[in-house]
User: Which sequence fits this backbone?
């Protein structure tokens, strides 16, 4: 029979799946968790870039490589160069007078303020510590009869011809020193790692972390200067050291062949084609191949023989640092070293040689920013600040100095400060700190300029910042004490 009440409705009921619908709170919980994960991800990226120091970021990237994709790169200044200067600041007469400058008429002989970081440095040879002298490892080549001492000249054609000296020298065609223990640098630790590698030649057994504790007590510190490396060697080891500017390739060969470890400071391209300062310990050379071999804290030590570098390549990078070199020696071998260095034994004469070489390069190319910059550095070392400031202006006008150069070289600050151009000091220091806040020398020089302008409060704050990044920065401590006194 049909149902009279519903004659057209089929006789059927819904089929149940047997699975109850999920509670609404669970659905909203999943949605909330998903939102929290997204928020947490973006917060993590913000914290990574805003709360971590650059060194901490690198450690995170070393563990989680994908994080490099989220790192905020520091913006490269426009054009990748140091801020330029108003062309009206200097004239063609300034360039001519600098290029024609003759130093034979006499030089300032007073002790000069340091060309690095404002510290006072004596022009005399460092006094060795009264300790026992380690036995130097033997070399396998004879000692040269003399070394080049006059101003170098460049081939200028990009070839592998080294800077030649006007004197005849007797240098072996190849030489190698043995006994170095290579150290791969930890984060930003090129200076301490290189000095550790070089000291190992004398039997030094401390590691780069020991050197770092003196040279970079704050791991974010960006730079260790040559005078700091020399100070560490003379104060912490049984070895003596000195640094000079204005070297040449024949001099490097003479030092290596005589068994003296030598370090050079170069401008190199490592980080996304950005220019950086870098130390290398030279262990050998070979005229037949036209190369030096270096134990490099970043690039490695080859397969033990060292990383090869063509003569012209090394010299081109080296001149960015006014051909600065560091030599280590036993106190008992000071006389031998002096005979090899010749005129370079005297720091003022080395600065003169460097100036003459830079003059020669600037005459060949008056748009060569490195040549003018090296002239300024040499003139600062000689205490000729007015001329140095003009040379630095011409270097900046050239418009090709890399923007990081004031991370490592501070003569420009010193020259401008000593001629009363305090606003220029402050402006350049601020430009530096806009790119990296871990530059104690920039704080120091900005503090010095502010103090000279009578702004003691801000000056003191800058000196304290300098000491925060390097607690061993004596010049900043003395400047702060003088304000408080």
Assistant:
């Amino acid at each position: 029979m049909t149902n009279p009440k519903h004659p057209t409705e089929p006789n059927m009921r819904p089929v149940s799946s047997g699975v109850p619908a999920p509670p609404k709170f669970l659905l909203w919980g999943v949605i909330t968790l998903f939102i929290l994960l997204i928020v947490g991800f973006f917060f993590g990226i913000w914290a990574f870039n805003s709360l971590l120091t650059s060194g901490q970021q690198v450690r995170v990237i070393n563990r989680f490589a994908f994080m490099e994709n989220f790192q905020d790169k520091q913006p490269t200044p426009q054009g990748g160069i140091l801020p330029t200067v108003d062309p009206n600041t200097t004239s063609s007469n300034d360039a001519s007078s600098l290029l024609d400058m003759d130093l034979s008429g006499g030089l300032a002989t007073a002790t000069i303020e340091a060309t690095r970081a404002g510290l006072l440095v004596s022009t005399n040879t460092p006094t060795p510590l009264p300790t026992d002298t380690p036995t130097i490892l033997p070399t396998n080549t004879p000692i040269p009869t003399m070394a080049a001492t006059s101003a170098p000249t460049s081939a200028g054609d990009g070839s592998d011809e080294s800077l030649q000296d006007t004197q005849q020298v007797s240098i072996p065609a190849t030489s190698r020193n043995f006994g170095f223990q290579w150290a791969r640098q930890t984060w930003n630790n090129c200076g301490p790692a290189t000095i550790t590698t070089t000291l190992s030649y004398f039997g030094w057994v401390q590691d780069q972390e020991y050197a770092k504790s003196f040279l970079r007590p704050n791991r974010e510190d960006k730079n260790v200067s040559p005078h700091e490396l020399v100070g560490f060697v003379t104060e912490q080891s049984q070895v003596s050291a000195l640094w000079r500017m204005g070297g040449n390739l024949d001099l490097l060969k003479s030092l290596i062949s005589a068994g003296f470890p030598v370090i050079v400071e170069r401008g190199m391209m490592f980080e996304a084609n950005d220019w950086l300062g870098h130390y290398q310990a030279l262990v050998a050379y070979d005229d037949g191949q036209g190369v030096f071999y270096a134990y490099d804290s970043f690039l490695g030590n080859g397969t033990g023989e060292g990383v090869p570098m063509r003569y012209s390549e090394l010299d081109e990078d080296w001149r960015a640092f006014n051909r600065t070199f560091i030599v280590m020696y036993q106190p008992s071998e000071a006389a031998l070293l002096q005979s090899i260095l010749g005129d370079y034994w005297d720091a003022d004469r080395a600065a003169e040689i460097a100036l003459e070489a830079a003059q020669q390069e600037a005459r060949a190319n008056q748009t060569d920013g490195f040549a003018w910059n090296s002239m300024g550095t040499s003139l600062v070392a000689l205490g000729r600040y007015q001329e140095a400031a003009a040379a630095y202006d011409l270097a900046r006008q050239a418009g090709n100095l890399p923007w990081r150069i004031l991370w490592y070289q501070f003569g420009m600050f010193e020259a401008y400060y000593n001629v009363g151009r305090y606003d220029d000091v402050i402006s350049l220091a601020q430009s530096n700190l806009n790119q990296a806040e871990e530059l104690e020398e920039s704080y120091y020089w900005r503090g010095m300029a502010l103090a000279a302008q009578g702004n003691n409060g801000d000056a003191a704050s800058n000196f304290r910042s300098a000491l925060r990044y390097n607690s061993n920065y004596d010049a900043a401590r003395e400047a702060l004490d003088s304000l408080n006194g």
Notes: Residues 422 and 449 are 5 Å apart (CA to CA). The first helix runs from residue 24 to 50.
